[in-house]
Amino acid sequence: xxxxxxxxxxxxxxxxxxxxxxxxxxxxxxxxxxxxxxxxxxxxxxxxxxxxxxxxxxxxxxxxxxxxxxxxxxxxxxxxxxxxxxxxxxxxxxxxxxxxxxxxxxxxxxxxxxxxxxxxxxxxxxxxxxxxxxxxxxxxxxxxxxxxxxxxxxxxxxxxxxxxxxxxxxxxxxxxxxxxxxxxxxxxxxxxxxxxxxxxxxxxxxxxxxxxxxxxxxxxxxxxxxxxxxxxxxxxxxxxxxxxxxxxxxxxxxxxxxxxxxxxxxxxxxxxxxxxxxxxxxxxxxxxxxxxxxxxxxxxxxxxxxxxxxxxxxxxxxxxxxxxxxxxxxxxxxxxxxxxxxxxxxxxxxxxxxxxxxxxxxxxxxxxxxxxxxxxxxxxxxxxxxx
Amino acid sequence: xxxxxxxxxxxxxxxxxxxxxxxxxxxxxxxxxxxxxxxxxxxxxxxxxxxxxxxxxxxxxxxxxxxxxxxxxxxxxxxxxxxxxxxxxxxxxxxxxxxxxxxxxxxxxxxxxxxxxxxxxxxxxxxxxxxxxxxxxxxxxxxxxxxxxxxxxxxxxxxxxxxxxxxxxxxxxxxxxxxxxxxxxxxxxxxxxxxxxxxxxxxxxxxxxxxxxxxxxxxxxxxxxxxxxxxxxxxxxxxxxxxxxxxxxxxxxxxxxxxxxxxxxxxxxxxxxxxxxxxxxxxxxxxxxxxxxxxxxxxxxxxxxxxxxxxxxxxxxxxxxxxxxxxxxxxxxxxxxxxxxxxxxxxxxxxxxxxxxxxxxxxxxxxxxxxxxxxxxxxxxxxxxxx
Lengths: 387, 387
Prior knowledge:
CATH architecture of the largest domain in chain A: Alpha-Beta Barrel
Strand order of the largest sheet of chain A: 4-14-13-12-11-10-6-5
Radius of gyration of chain A: 21 Å
Number of domains of chain A: 2
Mean pLDDT of chain A: 94
Shape of chain A: globular
Helix content of chain A: 40-55%
Oligomer: homodimer
Number of helices of chain A: 15
Distance between the termini of chain A: 58 Å
CATH topology of the largest domain in chain A: TIM Barrel
């Protein structure tokens, strides 16, 4: 069913490896995978102009259905021309279904077979979200890729809860597919991805993969893997489930992550990732750099005339002494968080580009060994200086 | 004493008019006057990347000495390479002397002949600023144009207070000139401007012009004209004093202003202006447009698919439906304030470019009649819609 305007082509998959590079074609352009998608929760990558996002190397971005359903509302987005026009983003966009947000940020009142009733975080009013409604909203938003409405179990280690949520997710997927097809399906230029649940249980994950891939969709996601169950459990869950997904479809690991996550997940054959990490860390003046993680508010940066990251081509690193960035952060100038967010986006996209090249060359493990020990350590300049 | 690298050349001054256009040459480039300088109080035009500031049409920008003296401190700025490097700004920069800020925002404890003692707004510690120290700090900051340290009377209508402050300003100017010359004077590549005080009293303004222009400086400013004494009094003060300033030197009206101020002041022969208006209004979601002043949070904009200002070439107007901008402002996304700030900067600089062309063509009054009634009115789309 992957048909124009959508296509996915594995470009390279060295023998004996699960890692692969690919090209994911959408109505708004081609995405080189593995790819990281910056998150524009409320129709804006926080603090960063779209051209900076594109220059950082992003090709596909994400927006959050639940936030946009609350404000400005799906009808408003549609009337304003859809998300691409609202966000001034010419490339592909993906919207989540609201499922994760409903379970993670809202006061969930009732989960029933029909759907979820919860309180709006904006005004406290009662909201009701069903699989059908989640699809309708996403059709109004107009992203290239829309996600099925799933139930994300609160604790992926509680087997009974996970089993109930996973089976409900499968029934909800049936309803999502039906509603999406009623609204035009692929002819809308919007591809529906199914979401595999199953928590940290191999048999439930396996059953979920079977149920979800029984629908011939453009792509599939692994959900429920970034809800706080700890690194080891996350790793086990996606290490096990990723290779079960069809080889000829893009595999999206929702809510991942950080450099170590990318290496872990790409090695298992994952293709798409999203996380608020680069911009949230940026706003909080935390930088990812080739020399390690940085807290730019640290006094050690105050007189640094060199760049934040000597290996980075971003405007923050090439146009400012790191001490100037620190000053902007310290006094609370918006531009400090903006520049750090831009830097982190460059870092994430540049890392992903190196990962793609390494996968194609069969050198992913070598790149990991070369990069990870440095980037995941803490770094500050002139370690002899006082904090 | 205006000598390379500084020069000021009146380009056009139609017969019978005081308005003129000019070219102000600095070590970091030439400024076409009349010119508006955006304010980068703490070494950042709030929320706007430098390239957006430049693309908006700004050629010269301003930074505030007192704020930078408090954080990160003049030595830090100097060690980081000076303001141009810290702000990633290749064009000319002007720093105020801190005088206005000391009197307007700090708890002033003691004003003595030596200088001013006040409490730091950052940590409450006691600070002492003298004319000499204000010059030394500005030499560290490294702007192209630095300002004399003046005493700004709290109420420009209280004659006795104004007289005392004005005479002290003259004595402080003598000390500023001496210290500036000791530190290298023009050979530093930094020009000192004197500041005329005198409140709303013609004789005091006249005496102040005489005293300040007894120093042959690169340029002169009128101070104490935006401290809340009301439009009529401001207008009278600068209408009277501007033409008294030397014809062959740039005339800087400090802290001005808004479109009507520009028309008023340019007509009297003023050349340089600065104000936080475009960015402060932008952050508060207030826009200046060709159709009038706009509150973008107004519900009337919610479904507007057209641009905020159909006559504006800025990214906010050419790349976003106005309803999308309103959404960003309403939900509190930083990008809303950033885009509105950029728009307002385009508006101010484009207005100033039209004013320059009108002055050169002897059509300033006509442009004023054409532009002001529209831009100073309130505007919202579809007036029939409910607020």
